[in-house]
Design brief:
Length: about 600
């Protein structure tokens, strides 16, 4: 990538300096060779039906996610040092940081040389060697977990806090490394969970690792009998089989609630640090929300002790959530994320709102709330498709009959042909969005296969589409030239000139992506102002252009086009470079 960047920079410099005598530069000729697309596909294209998130759980999907997350570290300073045969300065910064922090805690810690990593050039490969797999999902999920949470999903045979100091010895028995490794279904569940949890769950600076104890084993110590997960304030989470059950085919299982529960304990520790209470859940505001209070009593040995009690009528997320405030906290936050409908029934409205506001970005996860949230989150994509539908349907003279919309659904008169066209397009759009949600959202298939939820979906998506269509129709009623201007703007959506110029203007900036976002937003808004629309719609049109041309796609495409052009014109580049150098050598010496 550095080579491509250097070539691009050379071309940009060559176009800007020491070439005044030339009537046409190489970069000018390149621009003339760039084809500007004249058609825009519908944003929500048809996708295979009946597929779910688990159907795209592939190495290619995981590699793309890694690439996207690593992009944020492009401008970070390189890390010095080595790990076995690897020069850390040659690795992406997060991979180097991972090996610097956790490199000595990987694999068979009883016999570290038993695994040959010599053919590996990245962290996913190192993990896959531990699993005895080649280019498999295991390594990428481990690394993605680190990228998203900044702690280790372990793959070693030494459990923190175990009684034996010997790796591989647990509960007085010797276990093979394989018994400490996560299963196929557990690895998928960790990946799915990593897409469900956001800040503050992803910013736990004291959490170091999540460790599996050997398959088939319970925790050491009689007082741990029956427990399936343990969270330590020192920064560990230990899990055994009981917490890790999943139904892979239905995206369900106790795994999700149990693992999130233990992560919530770490969150409770972190937010309580430095306070007298130690736990966040022991602060008075949370005790008031949940009904907990302390009483003191004297035991049979005459020692004064404290005991948690609950006020009569207190509502609990689960029965276990009634044993102590910290368990209530961990349970409430866990089932809130994974069973929103149950949580809403089980806790008070104040408790429910508290969890949403403080831990889930004011979002709710009961099925109907998920539907509303998705419709809002995907409104940019649906907006593009509705926009195209309005343009297309205004030109079509005949469409198959549709009863999806009625004329009375809209505030402006609609001809029967256009009404049919809108209805047919809306049905297709709703269907394609359902497919997209099933493929992209962790709960997509769960919601879209629930009969009650699908009924709610049909109601909410239809109302969203109706209002969106009605907005365009109202503008058409007020301004007869509105459609012509919209059509003109629509034709320009595929023109990448603004997007490419924004990228070139930001090339080699400290933060290219944020610079690009600012540049393209400003330029697109200036272009949209020519439509003479109300401010809200002007911004909507600008946002539509921006959403069509992401930094990643424009960066990749521009560099690829330059690289192809450079390869095809290498001799010409050399000739122009020599001429440029000669002309610069002939200039008087100065700083320029």
């Amino acid at each position: 990538m550095q080579k491509t960047n250097s070539i691009l920079l050379l071309l940009l410099i060559a176009a800007a300096g020491c070439t005044q005598k030339k009537s046409e530069t190489l970069i000018t000729r390149w621009e003339k060779n760039v084809t500007v697309e004249t058609a825009v596909e519908r944003a929500l294209a048809s996708a295979p039906q009946g597929q779910c998130l688990r159907d795209v759980f592939t190495v290619d999907t995981l590699k793309a996610e890694v690439k996207e997350l690593e992009r944020k570290f492009q401008s970070a300073p390189k890390v010095s040092g080595t790990w076995k045969h690897l020069d850390l300065s040659k690795l992406p910064v997060p991979q180097a940081n991972f090996l610097k922090t956790y490199g000595l805690q990987l694999g068979d810690l009883k016999d570290p040389e038993s695994i040959d990593y010599s053919s590996c050039s990245d962290v996913p490969c190192i993990y896959n060697k531990i699993y005895k797999k080649d280019d498999a999902v295991f390594g990428y999920v481990h690394y993605l977990w680190y990228l998203r949470f900044n702690h280790m999903l372990s793959a070693d045979n030494l459990s923190p806090s175990q009684s034996s100091k010997i790796a591989g010895e647990y509960n007085g028995k010797i276990h093979a490394l394989e018994k400490y490794l996560w299963s196929d279904s557990e690895i998928y569940a960790f990946w799915r969970l990593s897409r469900m949890l956001k800040t503050p769950h992803t910013t736990l600076s004291y959490l170091k690792e999540i460790q599996r104890i050997p398959k088939g084993e319970g925790f050491e110590g009689k007082d741990m009998a029956g427990a399936c997960g343990l969270a330590y304030s020192q920064g560990w989470i230990l899990l055994n089989d009981g917490c890790l059950w999943t139904n892979h085919t239905k995206d369900s299982g106790y795994f999700y609630q149990a693992v999130t529960h233990e992560i919530n304990h770490q969150l409770d520790f972190q937010q309580g640090r430095g306070s007298r209470e130690f736990y966040r859940s022991h602060k008075q505001d949370y005790l008031d929300l949940t009904g907990f209070f302390l009483t003191e009593y004297v035991d049979e040995k005459g020692v004064t002790r404290s005991k948690w009690n609950l006020k009569p009528g207190s509502k609990l997320p689960t029965g276990y959530g009634g044993t102590a405030p910290q368990e209530n906290f961990a349970e409430a936050l866990a089932i809130f994320r994974h069973d929103g409908d149950l949580t809403k029934k089980n806790v008070t409205s104040d408790h429910y709102a508290f969890v949403s506001k403080n831990y889930y970005q004011d979002r709710f996860f009961e099925k109907e709330s998920l539907i509303k949230m998705w419709i809002q989150d995907y409104s940019s994509e649906t907006g593009k498709s509705i926009f195209k539908s309005v343009v297309d349907c205004s030109k079509e003279s005949a469409s198959p009959k549709s009863t999806y919309f009625k004329a009375s659904d809209f505030s402006s008169p609609v001809l029967p042909g256009m009404l049919n066209c809108f209805g047919n397009d809306a049905v297709e759009l709703s269907k394609n969005l359902k497919v997209q949600l099933s493929l992209e959202q962790p709960e997509g298939c769960t919601v879209m296969t629930d009969a009650t939820a699908v009924t709610k979906w049909d109601i909410h998506i239809k109302e969203h589409l109706r209002l969106s269509y009605d907005k365009y129709l109202s503008e058409l009623q007020k301004d007869k030239e509105y459609l012509a201007r919209i059509q003109q703007y629509y034709a320009q959506l595929a023109d990448k000139t603004i997007a490419r110029n924004s990228y070139i203007n930001c090339f080699n900036e400290a933060s290219e992506e944020s610079c690009f976002d600012d540049e393209i937003a400003k330029a697109a808004y200036e272009k949209a102002q020519l439509l003479r629309l109300p401010p809200e719609q002007t911004q909507e049109m600008a946002d539509m252009y921006v959403s069509y041309h992401s930094f990643q796609s424009i960066e990749s495409e521009t560099k690829q086009l330059y690289q192809s052009f450079v390869s095809a014109n290498m001799e010409l580049i050399r000739k122009e470079a020599d001429e440029t150098w000669d002309s610069c050598l002939g200039l008087p010496h100065n700083d320029d």
